[in-house]
Write a structure and sequence with these properties.
The complex is a heterodimer of chains A (411) and B (249). Chain A is an alpha+beta fold. Chain A is 56% helix and 17% strand. The two termini of chain A are 35 Å apart. Chain B has a domain at 47-62 and 91-242: P-loop containing nucleotide triphosphate hydrolases (Rossmann fold), CATH 3.40.50. Classes of the chains: A alpha+beta (411), B alpha/beta (249). The complex binds adenosine-5'-diphosphate and magnesium ion.
Chain lengths: 411, 249
């Protein structure tokens, strides 16, 4: 017969747990409850975070590179317009191109952590259609590249995301305000009265009012012409694989390319703070649940050690080492954690399922999408098993150090 | 601490299977209530000897047996078990010796209630081998058969009478054919008839397996049925003689 490590100790642990039926069940239930709460809360919070991140980062680059700041801080494209009307006369400053941007963009392609690189030329303009007149932000992009930064093609209300030399793609709010649709013509007026008339090729809805009201997509060349920035681009948009590495990478790019790199973590500080405090509160919840589960396991096993004093003495008399006795109780802790977390994760996943199908939904259009992955379940199971073993440590030590003579005599 | 590689069954060389040399035992050492309960005991037990240990309550019989069984350490002196000096041994080596060279029978049979009779008997071997073994199982069944309990193999202790439980405990002590079996008042909890049966069982295994037995008993009739009677009083061996009853050969 094959020798299985810890076979003897495991056999004893299982029989002891089986014999102490109601005690074992109770503590397994306790562990299950704790794990269910943890799985549910974690799934909920991570779902919420994914949702928030998706909504925020779904419409912006993770990192934006632009020409380094001069004495007067250059405005970000969206802000540009917000302030443009008030400070039109102050804006003597021209848009500045990122120096040597082709080489930089090419170099960025080689970073394994950078998943998309899109040069953008952006600046303020006006859109005119008959009497209607709106201030907008022109974005000159390579549509295929830009789609990797913001998935505009997936957000089309009508038409297609295919700006050309004569065609533009605009937001749904702007389209409404100008009273235009696909096929209609819009006149764009850029820097120094440079202007052109374009046909609307498509209308998008990104879900952020500001963007749906102001963004006008063109190819790079006509945008350069309108903004009087021949051959130049104002920024390079990046997406990366680990969004929380954005700030670090931005600082690195700053130094290496002599540009100003701004990560989403800087621009969306509030979101980041929200995510952080959510993570902190889940950690607190997890710790409290974990600690109470650990105490539960430890106290039930401590009682079991007292109850089994005499049997432990007998095991020692029959040649079990104190390490073997210790292992019996450690394994009991581990088993309780393992079995409890198996039930607990199932219950937690069930709760998540109920919540997503029956629970409240923040908005009608965006269903709160929660996915409790296998990783979460596996992690919870592993953690609970480990917690079981660790919390069994003190009772197990007591069992191991029992004086067999006293244990057998007193029972 | 040094651990013996493997504790083989000792060859029958006539060497004592147990030897105590000036064994003293004190309790509560270093406190005002320190007491010495064994005062320099010297003792040898040869292979296959069938020894009764008698004496008034509190004379130190259990203490002596626990020291012989490596369940307790003497304050002073040396204990040889099957040729191994044990003073310097650590827990693993002592446990291994217990599991391979010694067998225990206690007054309150002490079976593990979670296991069947058959499994209880196998437990000492499982502890030593770390696995199940067909041969061990077969031998456990043989022993159960020998004590007339084969039909009860799958019963749990709760489903057995006191006498039956003690018979299972005796089987457990003998599963590895230890050179020495230590029994502390093995019949103390049984009625006269049952205790006589249990005692004759010990005698039978002594003859069949050649195990030495040291049996603490208060029953003079049982004691006199042994080959050798050792009497203790107040932590001293006061008498060491042959049993009076003629041996049934
Ligand atoms: N753990 C202990 N602490 C203090 N005294 C003890 C302890 N164990 C036994 N004794 C004392 O040692 C003496 C011998 O006890 P024991 O060996 O149990 O005697 P017996 O088995 O012959 O009745 C008794 O006086 C008893 O009170
Ligand atoms: Mg006693």
């Amino acid at each position: 017969m094959m020798r299985v490590p810890l076979w003897y100790e495991t056999r004893l642990a299982i029989e002891f747990l089986r014999e102490g039926r109601s005690q074992s069940l109770l503590i397994i239930l306790g562990v299950a409850l704790g794990v269910a709460v943890i799985v549910f809360v974690l799934a909920l919070i991570s779902g919420l975070q994914d949702n928030l991140v998706e909504r925020t980062l779904g419409t912006q680059a993770h990192i934006k590179l632009r020409a380094p700041d001069e004495v007067v801080r250059e405005l970000r494209p969206i802000d540009t317009l917000a302030v443009a009307s008030q400070r039109r006369n102050e804006r003597a400053q021209r848009l500045r191109s990122v120096q040597n941007w082709q080489a930089i963009a090419e170099a960025l392609e080689d970073y394994p952590q950078i998943t998309a690189v899109s040069p953008v030329v952006t600046g303020p303009a006006f859109a005119r259609r008959g009497e209607a007149f709106k201030s907008v932000a022109i974005l000159g992009v390579d549509p295929a590249r830009y789609a990797q930064i913001v998935p505009v093609p997936e957000r089309m209300v009508s038409g297609v995301f295919r700006p050309t030399a004569t065609e533009i793609v605009i937001g749904v709010v702007l389209a409404d305000e100008l009273g235009v649709g696909v096929g209609d013509r819009v006149r764009l007026e850029g820097t120094d009265a440079r202007a052109g008339t374009f046909q609307v090729a498509g209308v998008f809805r990104l879900g952020v009012r500001d963007l749906d009201e102001r963004f006008v997509f063109l190819p790079i060349r006509p945008a350069q012409t309108l903004l009087d920035l021949p051959g130049g681009i104002t920024n390079i948009d990046l997406t990366i694989d680990d969004i929380f590495a954005a700030e670090g990478l931005a600082r690195e790019l700053d130094l290496r390319y002599g540009v100003t790199a701004e990560s989403w973590m800087e621009t969306s500080e509030q979101l980041l703070n929200a995510l952080r405090s959510q993570s902190e509160s889940t950690t607190v919840i997890q710790s409290f649940v974990g600690i109470s589960v650990a105490f539960g396991i430890a106290s039930v096993l401590a009682v079991s050690v007292v109850q089994r004093r005499r049997e432990i003495g007998i095991l020692r008399a029959m040649g079990s080492t104190s390490n073997q006795v210790m292992a019996v109780f450690l394994i009991q802790g581990g088993l309780v954690g393992l079995i409890g977390s198996a039930f607990g994760s199932s219950a937690g996943l069930g709760m998540v399922h109920l919540f997503t199908t029956l629970g409240p939904r923040p908005t009608e259009e965006a269903l709160f999408d929660i996915t409790a992955g296998a990783g979460l379940v596996l992690g919870a199971t592993l953690l609970a098993t480990l917690t079981g073993i660790v919390s069994a440590h003190f009772p197990a030590r007591r069992a191991a150090l029992l004086d067999p003579v006293a244990a057998i005599r007193d029972g | 601490m040094a651990e013996p590689m493997d504790v083989a069954q000792p060859a029958d060389t006539g060497e004592p299977v147990l030897r105590l040399e000036r064994v003293r035992k004190c309790y509560n050492v270093g406190t005002p209530i320190e007491v010495e309960v064994l005062h320099g005991i010297d003792l040898e037990v040869g292979p296959g000897e069938f020894v009764a240990l008698v004496g008034p309550s509190g004379s130190g019989k259990s203490t002596l047996l626990n020291i012989l069984g490596l369940l307790d350490r003497p304050t002073d002196g040396e204990v040889w078990i099957a040729g191994h000096a044990t003073r310097q041994l650590g827990d693993v080596a002592r446990s291994r010796l217990r599991g391979q060279v010694l067998g225990f029978v206690f007054q309150f049979h002490h079976l593990l209630t979670a296991f069947t009779a058959l499994d209880n008997i196998q437990l000492p071997r499982w502890a030593a081998m770390g696995r199940e073994d067909d041969e061990v199982r077969a031998r456990a069944l043989e022993l159960l058969d020998a004590v007339g309990m084969k039909a009860f193999a799958q019963r749990r202790p709760k489903e057995l009478s006191g006498g039956q439980q003690q018979r299972v405990a005796i089987c457990r002590a003998l599963i590895h054919r230890p050179p020495v079996v230590l029994a502390d008042e093995p019949t103390g909890n049984l009625d006269t008839e049952t205790s006589a049966q249990a005692f004759s069982l010990l005698r039978r295994f002594n003859r069949e397996f050649g195990c030495a037995f040291i049996i603490v008993t208060h029953d003079p009739k049982l004691a006199e049925g042994c080959d050798r009677v050792i009497e203790m009083v107040d932590g001293h061996i006061v008498q060491d003689r042959a049993g009076h009853a003629p041996r049934l050969e």
